[in-house]
Design brief:
This protein has 25 helices and 21 strands. It has about 700 residues and is α+β, with helices and mostly antiparallel strands. Strands 11, 12, 13 and 19 form a 4-stranded antiparallel beta sheet that branches.
């Protein structure tokens, strides 16, 4: 992919609409910081930067006031996640490290056109970016484009202007004029003059024909690297498809009523201005379902105007929603147990203070009266996980031990005072273990409960997005019934066919070298014992292929029967050989590797240069057959076996995470946290099962 010094091409990576990674800011941050356009540099470090950015690229939050349906769909989409993804952020940073920074803004130009146009550093944390920048493919990215640029790998010049300036859409100025003309009579209370008070809206909408054409999608969804390496070919695949010949567009399938199918569009108001709907017309779905899913805190994704008003991104990150903060059960627990801990702490402080002032009236019965309510409160509660139960039990044992030390030691003795200090430390640890050590921002129960209400809405949006994602993926990938070819003394042989259910492009498509779509096959006997398995995972969550660290270390055998539609990057080595790599950046023979743009047409070579992609996708309406054989030594005559086959989609392979972890991940996420969430987010699209009776007398169907 990336042309590294001499003849070394390569890096093949630009996480398309996904993924969600961020590189922590390091000294590398100063290596790539493109010159900021005039007018931005002067205010880049000032407190008013966010206001300035809003006046040239309005945030989607501003658009939500009149376009709630579009915003709701977009806010949980892959487009809105492109910049928020910690995987993408770390990957682009790692690629730049491996290429001495010369990959530049190649990745960010698709994931964050606003940030690219403002000349932001690619290493900036999303916590420090203005809203319209971290929103990724936001409203301005499509509706502030007024020219047809073709396949330019995302380098889109955006038309600048505040909220009231011209925008570009599919229908022109008709509805805008309808709202602006005689607004009082129609009930619209809007202003198009920034000097006036009121709900600001764009003063004009120009028709941009390209916005409704497949070519507009091709500006980002056909990626060619600097050296001519074809990283993504979704648009090119579409142009060669039957769907294109039939006049079906990308928008027809991905912005219509049914995800992934050209079943028509919804109709309704394009805007609801100050509570008043505009005339009904065709409206498009701005979710555009795909294979990616979020890996970050629900307080910061989906985008949510109420969440943004409630707390900053950094403040949301310290809200422990997994502990149950804000829900009724937890808050009752926090009130009872938290109060008991606080009272015991206060009693200990007063007791020690009294001893220090020679107040001999203090006795240990005072502490007894505070310890007992704490034990009683904890006994009445059930701590959920085994880890939590064990930890709390250990802490309570220590608490009892330190309390005994207080009661058994002479007042004011060294052991007595030390036991008081240990007991206070023990209480702090107990508070932390029970998730009761609230930061100041979330110390009030009322604030936590308000935040929980917002998160419940976020969970509902994520659930809806998962349902839409399942619809488009389960249509794109089809799994036939299991075909048993042999079930006799020679073994158990069977196969299954996976089909591409769409006629618009291959599956997977786009960034297909990072898309796992695989078959998990399990054969069990009548007792439930596994006699055969393929498509299972190693302890890291990877499949047992050549990228598994357990396979490479010889701890697990390679899965010879693995069916996986993930394409592979094949990278040339220094002496002419090739190998698979998850990051297609060649090992450079120079001290400072860098990308060198190819000056000649790749077609002239008739061969791959530094790297190539081994595509394993299924062509439109095509199919692939997976065959399996259970050795005869594993089966018995007269025994019944169950074959289960699952077709699973996962947005990235786990082994990508350690490959990019040196750059760090945004939001303070660890590689393990991300790996767990990646695996948990995988979707089982189809399941086929079949019972087979082994008979040594039966004849093979082969």
């Amino acid at each position: 992919m990336i042309m590294i010094k001499l003849n070394w091409s390569v890096f093949a990576l630009a996480l398309t609409v996904i993924v969600f990674s961020n590189a922590s800011t390091t000294s590398l941050a100063n290596q790539i910081n493109p010159q900021k356009p005039d007018g931005i540099k002067a205010v880049s470090d000032e407190p008013h930067k966010k206001v300035f950015v809003e006046n040239i690229y309005p945030s989607a939050k501003t658009c939500a006031a009149c376009h709630p349906k579009h915003y709701s769909e977009w806010s949980v989409s892959q487009h809105s996640y492109t910049q928020m993804s910690p995987i993408y952020m770390a990957m682009q940073a790692r690629i730049n490290t491996l290429t001495s920074g010369t990959n530049g803004d190649f990745c960010v130009r698709c994931h964050n056109q606003v940030g690219m146009n403002m000349g932001e550093s690619i290493y900036t944390s999303n916590l420090d970016r203005p809203a319209s920048s971290r929103e990724g493919v936001t409203c301005s990215v499509c509706h502030r484009v007024n020219k047809s640029y073709g396949k330019i790998s995302g380098r889109l010049p955006l038309v600048r202007g505040p909220m009231h300036s011209t925008i570009f859409g599919p229908t022109g100025n008709k509805n805008v004029k309808y709202v602006i003309d005689d607004p009082e009579k129609k009930g619209f209370r809007v202003v198009t003059n920034p000097e006036e008070r009121g709900l600001t809206m764009h003063g004009k909408a120009e028709k941009f024909f390209e916005l409704t054409k497949p070519g507009f999608c091709g500006t980002c969804h056909d990626v060619t690297l600097l050296n001519g390496f074809r990283l993504e070919e979704a648009f090119s695949e579409f142009k060669q498809s039957q769907a294109a010949k039939n006049g079906v567009s990308c928008q027809d399938c991905h912005m219509g009523k049914v995800p992934g199918q050209a079943k028509g569009y919804e109709h309704g108001p394009a805007a609801i201005v100050d509570g008043v709907p505009t005339p009904s017309r065709k409206i498009t779905n701005h979710f555009m379902a795909g294979p990616d899913y979020p890996l970050i805190h629900p307080g910061i994704f989906p985008h949510n105007t109420e969440a943004a008003d409630r707390a900053t991104l950094a403040e949301w990150l310290i809200f422990d929603h997994e502990a149950g903060w804000g829900n009724e059960e937890f808050e009752e627990f926090a009130d009872e147990v938290g109060t008991a801990i606080d009272e015991l702490k206060e009693t200990l402080s007063e007791f020690k203070s009294g001893i220090g002032s020679q107040n001999v009236s203090y006795n240990t019965d005072v502490i007894d009266e505070s310890v007992e309510p704490l034990f009683d409160a904890l006994k009445s509660k059930i701590v959920t996980t085994i880890h939590e139960r064990t930890k709390v039990a250990d802490l309570m044992t220590d608490l009892a031990k330190h309390w005994s030390g207080i009661k058994e030691s002479p007042i004011n003795s060294g052991k007595f005072l030390a036991s008081i200090e240990k007991l206070k430390i023990n209480l702090n640890e107990l508070q932390k273990s029970l998730n009761l050590n609230f930061p100041e921002m979330w110390s009030d129960a009322g604030d936590r409960e308000e935040a929980r209400e917002i998160l419940e809405h976020q969970f509902e949006r994520r659930k809806w997005a998962k349902e839409q994602r399942f619809k488009v993926l389960s249509h794109g990938y089809q799994l036939d019934e299991i075909n048993v070819r042999k079930a006799n003394k020679d073994g158990l042989n069977f196969d299954v066919t996976v089909r591409n259910g769409t006629n618009g492009h291959g599956v997977p498509t786009g960034f297909d070298a990072e898309r796992l779509v695989f078959l998990q096959v399990t054969v069990t006997d009548s007792a439930g014992h596994i006699v055969y398995v393929s498509g299972d995972r190693d302890p890291n969550g990877d499949l047992r292929d050549s990228h598994s660290t357990y396979v490479r270390a010889g701890k697990l055998p390679v899965d010879e029967d693995l069916f996986n539609l993930q394409s592979k990057f094949i990278v040339r080595l220094n002496r002419g050989g090739e190998r698979e790599q998850v990051l297609a950046v060649n090992t450079s023979v120079s001290a400072l590797p860098f990308i060198r743009p190819e000056a000649r047409a790749t077609v002239l070579y008739g061969r791959p240069l530094g790297a190539r992609k081994h595509k394993k996708t299924i062509e439109p309406l095509g199919s692939r057959k997976a065959s399996y054989r259970v050795p005869k030594a594993k089966i018995k005559d007269g025994e019944e076996y169950k074959i289960q086959i699952k077709l699973i989609s996962q947005m990235i392979p786990v082994h990508l995470i350690p490959a990019i972890q040196e750059s760090g991940f945004d939001y303070g996420l660890s590689p393990k946290e991300l790996a767990v969430r990646v695996v948990e987010g995988a979707s089982t699209l189809w399941t086929q099962e079949k019972d087979v009776l082994i008979s040594y007398k039966s004849v093979s169907n082969e």
